[in-house]
Amino acid sequence: MTERAPSPRIAIDPFGADLPAEAARLRAAGSVVPVELPGGIPAWAPTRYDTLRALILDPQVSKDPRKHWSLWAEVGEHPEWGWVLGWVGVVNMLSTYGPDHTRLRKLVAPSFTARRTELMRPRVEKITEELLTALDEPAGGKADDGVAPGAVVDLRVTYANQLPMQLICELFGVPDHLLGPVGDLVAAIMDTSDPSPEHGAYVQRQIGTVLPALIAYRAEHPGDDMTTELLRVRAEDGDRLSEEELLYTLLLVIGAGFETTVNLIGNAVVALLTHPEQLAAVRSGELTWDAVIDETLRVHPSIASLPLRFAVTDVTVDGVTIPAGDAILTTYAASGYDPEHYGPTATEFDATRGADDHMSFGIGVHRCIGAPLARLEARTALPALFDRYPDLRLAVDEADLRQVPSFIAYGWQKIPVRLHG
Asked: I need a surface site. Which of 28, 123, 240, 253 has the fewest CB within 10 A?
């Protein structure tokens, strides 16, 4: 068994209950600190903006555990590590390195170009309008006066979740009977609060059930969608896309395509409702919606920390040497809270600061290909919501909101609001 570094490790909160406080605690220990992930997985966590940026862009830092993680052969000996297999035990562009990453990315990237994204705008606007109309319809059916004043609505479930879910599932041809299972699968992967072997096994079973069902459905019912296109590539040239890569590419792009945007929209709504002066400024045109989106991504990034990257050789940064084969956590939230880069108010939401240099969509060769689509969805959903409901307000105190149980995802379990005054 591989001998682990003797350095004392700081345990990462698997619930992600207070990400700013945890980032401050890690930063106080240094620029790169040894940490322990759920289940006892050892890793290194960069705590500063420049440190994380240097590691992401370093060609000697890989995302392929099969080639570069010294503990890869031991994963099977640790059932409590099963949760991480949904992130590193897959073969797609998130977990590959060099030519393999380039090949897989080229298969999907054409569907997310700026031009293709712009062509989706009418559909994004139509879904948004349909969702807003549905908000005014009580559960028992449409009423002339819509939702009663004071009625509480969970905006995460009814709005923030629905737009990206509908759009990405249409893009990949997910049939109606698989919408629920796909959503449940992604939620299970994001949940890092339970490192038990049972949870890890459940995730693996769902991956091996839900996605093959989608592939089988589209093989029998081909359509104008990305799953059908990937199946065509697989059939015509298996060297470009293996069966395993097809499965896990769908897992990555469908999951990332809606869960992260759900949190972006939801986090922005909460940030604006708890900063009414900034909401007034963006509604009056003093601030742009793009500035709001960038600041949301900086201080409330949809993905707070992403597992994992790996040192190909010994990598030295800020005077700390990460040994070859060690795992590195990609700490987007901590980088956004860095006071050396964003000033003493780095943990506060301030859309006037100009935070368009955040790294929440990644940088370099692994930058999120769906970033333009996520921006389009948020740029459509947010102004439409506040225009329709100018008196929108939270139905609970901000302190009563609960973070989703994850140190990976950053979002709210529920967003209870009152649409009308």
From this structure: 28
251: Cα within 13 Å, side-chain hemisphere: 33
Entry pTM: 0.92
Residues whose CB is less than 8 angstroms from the CB of residue 238 and which lie 6 or more positions away in sequence, other chains included: none
Q: How far is CA 201 from the centre of its chain?
A: 22
By the 10 Å C-beta count (0-12 exposed, 13-18 middle, 19+ buried), 30 is classed as middle
Full DSSP string of 319-342: TEEE-TT-EEEE-HHHHHT-HHHH
pLDDT in tens, 6-64: 468 999 999 999 999 999 999 999 999 999 999 999 999 999 999 999 999 999 999 99
- Listing DSSP states for 263-280 in one string gives HHHHHHHHHHHT-HHHHH
Query: Rounded to an integer, what distance in angstroms lies between the CA atom of residue 125 and that of residue 224?
Result: 20
HSE at residue 24, side-chain half, CA atoms within 13 A, is 9
What gap in Å lies between CA 93 and CA 235, rounded to an integer?
20
- What's the CA dihedral at 267, 55, 338, 401 to 10 degrees? 30
> d(Cα 183, Cα 333) in Å, to the nearest integer?
24
